[in-house]
Write a structure and sequence with these properties.
Largest sheet: 7 strands, mixed
Structural class: alpha/beta
Radius of gyration: 28 Å
Number of strands: 21
Distance between the termini: 95 Å
CATH class of the largest domain: Alpha Beta
Number of domains: 2
Strand content: 15-25%
């Protein structure tokens, strides 16, 4: 290994006088999988000699007959022979490994011939009977790809969500109820949900009530209430305080009614709250808000970028998000993702970032700031609320932003809810993630669109959501007036 670190692995017994540093102790277990015995528990010792219990791992080798893996292994070794392979038996094994210094972690995975860290070895192992019969007995292949490999690359473990919101608005039939379901690894992804409707149906009010209901928990009469259902179907139960780790609201309209609650980034509160937008609290009166000036927005971006680039996982996620935005030609021309490459002088990166940000159009600034702040703040089980992101973005950038958002949410196992009147956002999500909100006088109701929305034509989606309103406005109206005028002239 390049940095000269060597790891010593002991089997069952540690020779007297051994110094347990940069070493691992494997204890074999007699557990029998159809006459294969491959199970071990591992304690890894750091350079300082601190023990870390990693838990269960199974070890096999090519051409292995029945019996114990242990019998073929020497009492201690630096690395397993080339024809061996191992697999941790639960997500926690890899999560604990992520707490180990990176050089030791990589060396351990290499010496253990781990199939999660080495996909080529997984292919090699997959044809062996010991792999399918014993090593995969309690782990699925999809868990290796979906969960374990994601953990090693710094991602979150994906879980499903099923939660319900009863709004403080509705009609004679009762309060309006919205259901949200997220299934891991679904295609198309189900981690972005959309509330769509014309202006004035109460979309922003709904988002504000949702923020307050989760962050302030309580007052269900004025804010509505949340319930959750477990994997197995209902009963529904009130949402536990820790169901979401944090709520982030994003709003960049000068008219947005999102009020930035005081940021609750201190995690002593049950649910953290982050506001990303144009407003800040007024110094003279804490209840009032004033708008940030361009310099403050640039500072927000630079400080957030600094955080993202200082951590390997966030750096990677920021780079992925920017790459997704580069489907927009203007973004591609700026070569922003280069800033995430290693080896640049941090001060130089900061200067370049400042210069690029200051020369951007307002729409591009807002997207870049939003994405960077989201990479910085969104964590496992966050709920992100976005109010009308289309107000600053042209359609291709809006599509690219929605995709980038979905990928980031997947990486962090988080969920977003977007209030919009743009059919472009609808094209990016399946019908099962869309609530169409209609309001007539005092009654408000929510229903699913009649047609599949994912990948559908924008014209068809516009008709689906706004219906008759489209045929009574704009050029339709002009032509109708003209035709009726012609008809009148003809009659004369």
């Amino acid at each position: 290994m390049g940095n000269g670190m060597t790891l010593q692995i002991y089997l069952d017994a540690v020779p007297p006088g051994s110094v347990l540093a940069n070493s691992a102790v494997l204890r074999s277990d007699n557990w029998d999988d159809y006459s294969y015995k491959t199970l071990f528990t591992v304690v890894l010792y750091t350079e300082q000699g601190a023990p870390i219990s990693l838990g269960a791992v199974k070890i096999g080798f090519t051409g292995q007959g029945h019996g114990r893996t242990r019998e073929a292994m020497p009492p201690s070794f630096g690395e397993m022979p080339e024809n061996y392979f191992s697999l941790g038996q639960e997500p926690e094994y890899y999560q604990r490994l992520m707490t180990v210094p990176v050089a030791l972690r990589n060396e351990y995975l290499r010496c253990m011939r781990d199939v999660v860290a080495d996909p080529v070895r997984e292919q090699l192992a997959a044809v062996e009977s010991v792999f399918s019969t014993s090593i995969l007995r309690s782990v699925s292949r999809s868990a290796i790809d979906g969960q374990f490999r994601r953990i090693l690359s710094g991602g979150a473990v994906l879980t499903s969500y099923r939660f319900y919101y009863t709004a403080p608005m509705g009609n004679d039939e009762g309060a309006m109820q919205l259901a949200f379901e997220v299934a891991p690894n679904s295609l198309p992804p189900t981690n972005i949900h959309v509330v769509i409707g014309r202006n004035g149906v109460g979309k922003t009010t709904l988002l504000n009530s949702i923020v307050e209901a989760i962050v302030h928990q309580g007052r269900s009469d004025t804010l509505g209430r949340f319930e959750v259902a477990s994997e197995t179907w209902p009963p529904k139960i009130p949402m536990p305080p820790s169901y979401f780790s944090s709520v982030t609201s994003v709003a960049f309209s000068a008219f947005d009614k999102f009020s930035p609650l005081p940021d609750q980034s201190d995690n002593s509160r049950s649910v953290g709250y982050v506001y990303i937008g144009l407003k800040k609290r007024s110094l003279s009166s804490p209840t009032d808000h004033v708008f940030k000036d361009p310099v403050e927005l640039a500072d927000d971006f630079l400080n957030s970028l600094d955080v993202c680039l200082s951590m390997d996982v966030k750096r990677e996620q920021w780079k992925n998000a920017i790459t997704a935005l580069e489907f927009d030609e203007n973004f591609a021309e700026m070569s922003l993702s280069l800033m995430a490459e290693y080896g640049h002088d941090p001060e130089e990166v900061k200067r370049y970032a400042k210069q690029v940000f200051e020369n951007m159009s307002s729409g591009h600034k807002i997207v870049l700031l939003t994405v960077t702040k989201l990479v910085e703040t969104v964590e496992e089980k966050s709920l992100v609320l976005l109010d009308e992101p289309e107000s600053h973005l042209h359609p291709p950038l809006l599509s690219a932003f929605t995709r980038a958002l979905s990928e980031l949410l997947t990486a962090r196992n988080a969920v977003a809810l977007i209030a919009t009147h743009s059919p472009v956002v609808l094209q990016e999500v399946p019908r099962s993630c869309v609530w169409k909100i209609n309001r007539f006088r005092d009654s408000t109701k929510a229903e699913r669109p009649e047609m599949e929305t994912f990948g559908e034509n924008v014209g068809a989606l516009t008709r689906e959501i706004f219906g008759l309103a489209v045929s009574k406005s704009g050029f339709h109206d002009l032509l109708a007036k003209r035709l009726s005028k012609l008809a009148t002239l003809k009659r004369l």
